[in-house]
Amino acid sequence: MSLQLPDPLRVAVASLGGTITMTSDRSDGRGVVPSLTAADLLRSVPSLAHVEVESATLATVPGASLGLDDLFAVLTWARAVVDAGADGVVVVQGTDTIEETAYLLDLYWDRSAPLVVTGAMRSPQAPGADGPANLSAAVVTATSAGARDRGVLVVMADQVHAAARVRKTRSSGPDVFRSDSFGPLGHVDEGAVAFGGPAWRPSPLTTGAPDRPVLVPLLETFLGDDGRLLEIVDDAGCAGIVVAGFGVGHVSAGLAAVVGRVVERRPVVVATRTGAGTTYTSTYGFPGSESDLIARGAVLSGSLDPRKSRLLLTCLLGSGAGAGKIADEFRRRGARGVPA
């Protein structure tokens, strides 16, 4: 009687570029530019020998140069490889925009298999390069049964974050990604990932990719903001606007008056600029408070930060969503935690 061995786990790895792929011809390693392919990156991680890996290089650019078209191409590729049998997917890219790109992918990722985004804070030629360790941890997460049905995850420095919560909180350094409101979902230790709770995420958007380009600016309020900047942006023409407000969703009385006029023409979403926590709905009642803005017709973003709010509003408006749908999606996706 022969022993039947289980099929090896399969993971597909795609590279979009970023610091993890950047090299330099200089002896001091400065002046790095994107150059390595996905196959090059995999050769630097011998611990992946037990996993069946396929690779694809979809782009070779810094994270700041990625666009929506690149991400929808990633979605097409990722769905295809999962439907062909991959147990999970890893996308490698520049860290400058991971908190945004991962969330955009998460809005549309409609497979149970994990889609994991990772990168590096130090280039391959830098002392203490973190790319190989991050790629290894990402593959471990992508092939973990516990990662299924969690949507898109960001894995950096052995921490596993939800795409909807993670933020890059420092410009440089090896450990800069945080999910301050709720903490990471899990950690990678000794070649395995452990999660702190059951899988849960809002269901993906069913509207499909935006069928038309839309402009959604992001404005951060400031001390003395009287609304003139919002008026300028509104006059320039856009589909909607996100305002990063003070505290739990506050702006000045002057800006609130302008918001009330702008919402008659286009949606205005107000998020908190603090980097963590949620907007309120009814605690304060002064002009410019969260309840005043809601009464004027603004949508409060809940726990979605300004950057993720801009992406959600862009996708909704690009697919023709109306005011009711927009309010419902922000209420659902900006909920303060897992529904009881």
Describe this protein's structure.
It holds the Pfam family Asparaginase. It comes from Microlunatus antarcticus. There is one protein chain. By secondary structure, this protein is of the alpha/beta class. The protein has two domains: 10-195, Rossmann fold (3-Layer(aba) Sandwich), CATH 3.40.50; 218-333, Rossmann fold, CATH 3.40.50.40. 28% of the residues lie in helices and 20% in strands. The protein contains nine helices and 16 strands. The chain has helices spanning 38-43, 68-83, 98-108, 131-142, 228-236, 253-262, 290-296, 306-318, 323-333; strands at residues 10-17, 22-23, 33-34, 52-61, 88-92, 115-118, 152-156, 159-162, 167-168, 177-178, 186-189, 192-195, 218-220, 241-245, 268-272, 299-300. The strands form four sheets. Strands 4-1-5-6-7-8-11-12 form an eight-stranded mixed beta sheet, sandwiched between helices. Strands 13-14-15-16 form a four-stranded parallel beta sheet, with helices on both faces. α4 links the parallel β6 and β7. α2 crosses α3 and α8 (306-318) runs antiparallel to α9 (323-333). The longest helix has 16 residues, at 68-83. It starts with 9 loop residues before the first strand and ends in a 7-residue tail after the last helix. The relative contact order is 0.10. The mean pLDDT is 94.
